[in-house]
Specification:
Shape: globular
Number of strands: 12
Strand order of the largest sheet: 3-5-6-7-8-9-10-11
Order of helices and strands: EEEEHEHEHHEHEHEHEHEEHHH
Bound molecules: zinc ion
Radius of gyration: 18 Å
Structural class: alpha/beta
Helix content: 40-55%
Strand content: 5-15%
Length: 320
């Protein structure tokens, strides 16, 4: 049977249980380390906050969480391992790179000007899955790719090709970031062109579109869709995410949808000028279990379909 790389070692897909497929313990926008006037990162306080959150989630039945932070977004896999150890929740981390406009693209664009950046990226992703991240010995369990809104830049195209090749070399599944409910179909087409089977792919943030044709085009090809930004009302209202989700469940796509929030628990650099609770009061990793699931039940969605999205689909995605 397939094993899954978590930040604290391997586990079996059946060990995952109820899994939030897209949350972040720590994010740092590239450039955060240029803010030398920011207060130093309080690792101990951050760990306390993350372990507390994990305990709350455990109380709601959560037993695993995927933190698909790409390499260039302040990723700290040793921190994730400490939180997993202290909380007993499985955490799966990622290799891969973020979208061009807000990631760390400069280095790879420079490399690409003189050589084959795709090969170098592929080598990095494969190494992080097979051998581990830096000298930590912690291995990535998923490969992340990302695109900005309404276009795939040449840089993002290269990251997607490298991710596809790394997937084929390692078997690690792919999870993506999309903006404004766009470019998911194009991401999937590129991955398929490179020989990736869509059942190893989650097109993330697909709930940012309310276009059911966008959703069914990708579902019909066998990909998973991430309805993974619940509570992020600033970007797209939950009622539209819910309307799309209930519609897709009604026509039988429960085996291809995963649920999450894309919450960020700690930010590198200075504290946010406005607290998150004020900006997006529902953007909390308990929101799906506390509010979205009851709403689905009220809409007549059977418990079996809810379990499929929260328990069985994460398992099957990692089983490959
Ligand atoms: Zn994310």
């Amino acid at each position: 049977m397939t094993t899954i790389q978590t930040v604290t070692g391997t586990c079996r897909p059946t060990d995952l249980g109820l899994t939030l497929m897209h949350e972040h313990l720590i994010i740092g926008w590239p450039g955060w380390d240029s803010d030398t006037a920011a207060p130093p990162f309080d690792r101990r306080e951050a760990k306390r906050l993350c372990v507390d959150r994990m305990q709350e989630l455990k109380g709601l039945g959560v037993t695993a969480l995927v933190d698909p932070c790409p390499i260039d977004l302040g990723r700290d896999v040793e921190f994730a391992a400490e939180v997993a150890q202290a909380s007993g929740v499985h955490i799966i981390c990622a290799t891969g790179l973020y979208k061009e406009e807000s990631g760390g693209a400069a280095y790879f664009k420079f490399r690409g000007a003189f050589g084959d950046a795709v090969s170098e990226m592929t080598e990095i992703f494969v190494k992080e899955v097979k051998e581990g991240i830096g000298s930590t010995g912690i291995k990535a369990g998923v490969i992340k790719v990302a695109t900005g809104p309404h276009q795939i830049t040449p840089y993002e195209h290269n990251v997607i090709i490298a991710a596809a090749r790394a997937h084929k070399a390692t078997g690690a599944p792919i999870t993506t970031h999309t903006d404004e409910g766009t470019m998911g179909r194009e991401q999937l087409a590129l991955l398929i062109e490179e020989g990736v089977d869509p059942r190893h792919v989650i097109i993330g943030h697909s709930c940012g579109s309310a276009d059911l044709r966008y959703h069914t085009d990708m579902l019909d090809q066998g990909a998973y869709l991430g309805f993974d930004r619940f509570g992020l009302e600033l970007l797209h209202p939950d009622r539209l995410r819910l309307a799309s989700l209930i519609g897709l469940l009604g026509i039988g796509f429960e085996r291809q949808i995963v649920l999450s929030h894309d919450t960020v628990w700690c930010w590198r650099g200075r504290p946010l000028p406005v607290p998150v609770e004020q900006l997006a009061p529902q953007w909390d990793p308990r929101h799906v279990l506390q509010h979205i699931v009851p709403t689905l039940r009220e809409a007549g969605v059977a418990q079996g379909k809810i379990d499929a999205m929260l328990i069985e689909n994460p398992r099957r995605y990692f089983e490959g």
